[in-house]
Amino acid sequence: MKIIGLTGGIGAGKTTVAQLFEKRGYGVYNSDIKAKELMTVDFQLKRQLIDLLGEEAYIGSELNKKWIAEKIFSDAELLKKQNALVHAAVRKDFAAWTRRQKGSFCVKEASILFESESYKSCDYTVVVTAPDEIRLRRAVLRDKAAMEEIKKRMKYQFSQEKLIELADFQIINNEDLEKLKTRVDELIQKIENLLQQQK
Fold it and tell me: Which pairs from 35-42 meet CB under 8 Å and 24+ separation?
């Protein structure tokens, strides 16, 4: 099973692209959603996070997301430690998920694919990009968060320039959904052709 890593900065449209891959029959593993899920259902990970962040990290069995975000996005070292714990759990879960997939390739969607070094398990990588003003507008609307809060989160991700440099493919998402669908279809064809050549 070949693995295509999919990433993009906040508001670039990575999740929309992932949904388009899924509609075309490819398995998509959303690392960010899975990470949040594992943080509440994986007992060992939960214990490790409480040891690192404190009891306030959870309200009952639920993640105290706002409190955690405020804590980790103002302490780079803490963010790094939390990411290391979560990524280890996600890696294990992803390996089990991959074994159940069928088809020529599956997609691993991750907002910090390169930062977390999880790109190393991918055969090819794709970055979704959009102009900063579009990304900011989308993220503010989606997360119902203040512009400053979104900018703060952006600082903890690689710049789009760096992501373009690191990725094998780029999808520009600066127009309407129809245009994006066309670009995704073209990329799928390109990847399928590459995989055929390798057989």
Answer: 35/86, 35/87, 35/89, 35/90, 36/63, 38/86, 38/89, 38/90, 38/93, 39/63, 39/86, 42/89
| 123-144 residue pLDDT tens | 999 999 999 889 888 888 887 7
Over residues 51-68, the pLDDT tens digits come to: 999 999 999 989 998 899
Around Cβ 71, how many Cβ atoms within 10 Å?
A: 18
The set of residues, in sequence order, having a beta carbon less than 8 Å from that of 124 and lying 6+ positions away, is 2, 4, 5, 168, 169, 191, 194
Can you give the pLDDT at residue 183? 97
93 and 107 in a common domain = no
Cα(81)–Cα(49) distance, rounded to whole angstroms? Answer: 9
Amino acid identity of residue 150, one-letter, is I
- Rounded Cα distance between 124 and 108, Å, is 10
Separation CA 31–CA 34 (nearest Å): 5
Statement to judge: residues 36 and 18 lie in one domain: no
Closest CA to 34 of 90, 85, 87, 92: 90
State which H helix or E strand residue 50 sits in: helix 43-53
Q: Which domain holds residue 89?
A: 32-100
